[in-house]
Amino acid sequence: MSTNFNLGGGSKGFRKKKLKPFVRYLEVECWKRAELRELEPVFQAVAEACKQISRIVQRAKTDDLYGDALGADGAPLDGTNIQGEVQQKLDVICNTYMLRAFCGCSKAIHSVASEEEDEPRCCADIMSDSAFAVGDYVAVFDPLDGSKNIEASLPVGSIFGVYRAQPGVPIDGAKSFLQTGGNLVAAGYCLFSATTVLVITLGSGVDGFTLDPDVGQFLHTHEDIRIPASGPIYSFNEANFRDFEDPVKRYLAALKEGSSSVGMRSNARYVGALVADVHNILINGGIYGYPATFSNPSGKLRLLYESAPIAMIMENAGGAGSTGKGRILDVKPTEIHERVPTYLGSVENVFELDQFMSYYGDGDEESEETS
Ligand code: F6P
């Protein structure tokens, strides 16, 4: 017996909605805001890079793209990256796509800092052409976040942010990157999951675009995303529970008992890829946390290219981003790969976590109830 589905949009089938392509959305937004015009080709190129990464993630197994990155001689690349991780082939490929997207399509970006590079790099160096050293902006990105998820076909993501170089600070080396996230001009992420979704903020509002694989275009599926003011999901790696600070333990206990301001017992969801976990929180409401632990007092997430861009997205969608001691976007980094305890999500949830941190924050003792 055969079953025929009509997905073509005829009167008996599912009607396909006419959705605006990302390119058109960008044209309109950058026309409305003259200060963004110079960056329009950059955002277009980043969307193209996201399409390429989406494809490469899909084809990783069939094209033998798993495993450690190899040098030109076929031997594994020397050592580890700045994060102490052995670079994977996919990390190297995705980093190359992002470097080219930010540097190669216009001269707006002067330099970039990537999770995969020890130091920031000038676009002139990346493009081997001094003409690319004239831009007023710098970009930060994590080309493939959560890459250890790929082997098991779980979601991964890319994260990016763009800053205007600071007036009076020469754009070379790390200095022009060491700005608070509050100075971000734009930020976004791309989630590679059941669907590939690009989420972006260009300074106000947050919009989402789903890749239509048939036409190869990101289409405007999530207009003006607003995160629920409070939500029932919490997304923490609870395997680290014993190492969390007492206020975090108490907060998690309140979520589980249903005594938090959410007003019901919460639900745990943890993918282990930041983009996937925060996208779930952005759409459904709740809180994502990567707290400080006794062994890592600054947590795990990197401020510049993980926590700050996503905090900007959360805030512009009506949510919040906190270190537990204040707004993530107010933290000024002192080095490129600096880490920061990170809480992101619905404003009520993040506010309550901050309240627990300040109320219970002074004692070192573990409470009876939560230990
Ligand atoms: O970049 C850090 C990262 O890979 C995030 O994507 C993810 O949220 C986190 O690490 C997962 O860490 P863990 O395995 O310790 O929970």
TrEMBL record:
Cofactors (names): Mg(2+)
Annotated EC: 3.1.3.11
One GO BP: fructose 1,6-bisphosphate metabolic process
Record's catalysed reaction(s): beta-D-fructose 1,6-bisphosphate + H2O = beta-D-fructose 6-phosphate + phosphate
Keyword Methyltransferase listed: no
Subcellular location: Cytoplasm
Broad enzyme group: hydrolase
Pfam families given in the database record: FBPase (PF00316), FBPase_C (PF18913)
An example Gene Ontology molecular-function term: metal ion binding
GO cellular component term, pick one: cytosol
Ranges in coiled-coil conformation: none
Keyword terms of this UniProt record: Carbohydrate metabolism, Cytoplasm, Hydrolase, Magnesium, Metal-binding
All copies of domain Fructose-1-6-bisphosphatase class 1 C-terminal, residue ranges: 227-357
Record has Lipoprotein as a keyword: no
Classification via InterPro entries: FBPase_C_dom (IPR044015), FBPase_class-1 (IPR000146), FBPase_N (IPR033391), FBPtase (IPR028343), Fructose_bisphosphatase_AS (IPR020548)
Domain Fructose-1-6-bisphosphatase class I N-terminal as annotated: residue spans: 37-223
Family label: Belongs to the FBPase class 1 family.
Name of protein: Fructose-1,6-bisphosphatase, cytosolic
Organism encoding this protein: Seminavis robusta
